[in-house]
Each structure stands twice: as structure tokens, then as C-alpha cells.
Amino acid sequence: MGVDLRELPLRAGVFGAEPWSDAMRRHIEEVAGIKAYDIYGLTEIIGPGVGCECCNQNGLHVFEDHFYPEIINPETGEPLPDGSEGELVITTLTKEAMPIVRYRTRDITSIQTEACPCGRTVRRIRRIGRRSDDMLIVRGVNMFPSQIESALLAVEGTVPHYRIILTREKGLDQVEVQVEVTPEVFSDRVRSLEEVQGKIAHAIERTVGLRIKVRLVEPHSIERSEGKAKRVIDKRNQES
Ligand SMILES: [Zn+2]
To answer: How remote is the CA of residue 12 from the centroid of ligand 1, in Å?
Structure first.
């Protein structure tokens, strides 16, 4: 809409609903001239508000007087000690009409117990980078959409709008990452497009360990969603 966010008197924004990387945080903070805070919650529990970052942006304080967090091994269901990574499980302590007991969130995190400089004594959870069910297994390699996002944000000339398309040809998984580039890069000569494409493929290979196909697409050609973004299109069951 042509509004320069930096000209607005906004100082802070609270963002949630899906995992977003630290690279995405730096991007938002730079573009909007604000501090970007992470909030966590689930519709089944309360919606946003199970936990939120404080001014230190170092883990999300869980409101433990209302929600009891546990970390379990997602495969065995066994509870894990504070500090270990696993699936977050939540029990509501004060909800009356619809109490929830040991609800499995599928979100992967760990509980941090070190004192926070802000003075709050409730425990924190590490920012959620992935869910146990959004892992993609491609040619035997585990891959998370959030890794693709971090790789993209490290390359200049791209914007964090992307789509991962999985197909299967002759029994072999094929991945294509479609990435929007900035209008400046797109209007530039073919050579610089190829250069950006190569840089992205390289950045993804470094992060994920797989060489995958990258296709640059025109600015604003990837559909914007108002809720959770649909970044992965898996067509592997429709082998042609
Ligand atoms: Zn704090």
C-alpha cells in the first residue's frame, strides 16, 4: 500500500501462529523499524497467550500459574528433564469449562530454567522452530521448512516468500523450491538472476545437506495467506 512502516510510531510487534526463524525476526525488525516478539499458544488451550517473550527476546516465558508445560520424547511419550529437546505437552491448571490434560502440541522445543534478567521467575521455552509433524523426509534426509527459510534470508535479493514442491519421478523424490525475488533483482539482467539462483541453491545445500532445484519467480506471484502459510505442496502420491 506504499506505507513506509519505519515512518509509523510503532515500536513493537507480537508475532505468532507459525514458526518463524531468527533470520525472519531480523528481517521484520529491519523493514518495520520495530522490536519483533514471539508469542506462543494453541487454539485448543487458549489461543495466543500460553507464553510470550520478554524484552530480552531469549525464550518465551510460559504463564505457569495457568499452564503446566512438560517435554516428552515424541516417539515413546516418556517425560524428559528440563533442558532436553522434545515435544511440548501442556496441561491447563485454571481452565474450567474445558480443562485440557497433557495435550500433545507436536511442537518441538526445550524448557529453559536459567534465571531471566527481566526478573520473571516462570520458566521459559525455547522458540519453536519446528513441529514433529512438519518434517519432510526427502531422499532419506530430514528437512524442515524453517531451514529453507533461514537459508533464503541469508541471500540478498530474495524475500521470505517461498514454496516447497515435492514430486516423485521414477520412485525418486524431487524437490523444487520456488522463491520470490525483489523487483530490483527481477528487472535485472538474466545473469544476476542466475547468480541469485546459484547462491540460494548453495545456501540450502549448506543448511539441509541436499542439492535441490531452485526456481526464481516474479515478485508477488506466490499466494499470500491470512492464516498459517501453506509452504509445502507434496505431490509425491500422484506419481505420473
Ligand atoms: Zn524474561
So the answer is: 16
pLDDT at 190: 67
**pLDDT value of residue 231:** 84
Tell me if residue 34 falls in helix, strand or coil: coil
CA of 110 to the centre of ligand 1 (A): 16
Ligand 1 mean position, distance from CA 117 (Å): 6
pTM above 0.85, yes or no: no
pLDDT at 160 over 80: no
Asked if residue 240 belongs to a domain, the reply is no
CA 111 to ligand 1 center in whole angstroms: 13
Whichever domain contains 199, its CATH number is 3.30.300.30
pLDDT the model gives residue 148: 87
| pLDDT of 38 higher than 90 | yes
Query: What residues are neighbours of ligand 1 (ion), with CB under 5 Å?
Result: 54, 116, 118, 120
Residue type, 69: P
In a domain, 239, yes or no: no
